[in-house]
Amino acid sequence: MFCSVLFLLLLSLLAFIAKGRWKCQGPGPCGSKTLPSPRPLPLLGHLLELRRKDLPVRFMELSRRYGPVYRLRFGTQDVVVLNTTELIREALIKKWSDFAGRPQSYTADLISFGGKDLSLGNYTAMWKIQRRLAHSSLQRSLRTNLEALISQEAQQLCQDFLSYGSSPVDVSKDFSLHTCRIISSMTFGVLFDKKDPEFQVIHKCIGDVVQLWSSPNITVLDSFPFLRKLPNASLDALMQAVARRDAFVKHQLEIHKETFQPSEIRDISDSMIHFLQERKQQEQTPAAAGGEEFDEDYIHMAIVDLFIGGTETTASTLTWSVAYLMHHPQVTFYPEQGLWCLDRISHGRAF
Ligand code: HEM
Questions:
Q1: Of all atoms in ligand 1, which is nearest to the CA of residue 187?
Q2: Signal peptide span per the entry (predicted)?
């Protein structure tokens, strides 16, 4: 609380000092020629937008006013927001390598051994190796009996939902728990019990890291470096969650290394350990040639990426799907076929 008040006072002071010196270098209503942008606040830019609880709705509102591509400014950083599926597809899929670079970020580096990470790291030779490894390990794990595991998990999920009866429920937690169990099984070969304390710790860490890292108290550190010197309870909480996450992943990797057999690759961790061991045996590694070494940190962070990238994305996609279904009851889900269908029969039309 004290930290927030101090922070606001400090920002007001800086805004006051900067008054008159602030020039809108941005486009749109501010007068420049590139991307449209709402008028920014002095110094803060659009940082306060991030405090809004209804951020997705707000982004949609802004896209109606400024078009499908607009620009926001967080402190000194510009952020381009894409608002249609086609544009997002174009940036992330069709022209993915054009957009593969990532800017240096203080907070991203803090939680990823200095950017040795797939989703937060820059587009470097090491990143390409890490990505190839993550994809091939994932592909290999898909060859196991994943369908049976997912069906069994889906059945358990249905039972959990039925057990709530007619009481209100936050479905996102169950979606996230069950997804996390599947990904744990693929990554570490362990199907944790939902009540297992170790599993609960890692599951909570995933949520905490995502939530804290994207919170305004942390995001602001990327835009205003001087704030990094001040006490920040959110940053402390984030670093504690990251420490728990790392202890869990390290522990799992140690167990895997102790029992590793090259002839029997059991899961994603084994695939990654295998790759690292083979690479170390090669005489001309980049390290030997004077370049950067592809070390265990990259494997560690690739596992974290699978966990966080796989769990929260899937859980929020499912949660949003339920939200859409509630608002569009004419759409029906047929679980047996895994199909979403527009139920036009009720309106007297075949589909
Ligand atoms: C509905 C579910 C999912 C959505 C919406 C989703 C979305 C995305 C998006 C948009 C990216 C690109 C991010 C960027 O370019 O920075 C990405 C990357 C990634 N996702 Fe997912 N994802 C989903 C499920 C999964 C699952 C189940 C896994 C693994 C078990 C996974 C693992 C990854 C990894 C490792 C990356 C980074 C590597 C790369 O760019 O190829 N994702 N995901």
A1: 30
A2: 1-20
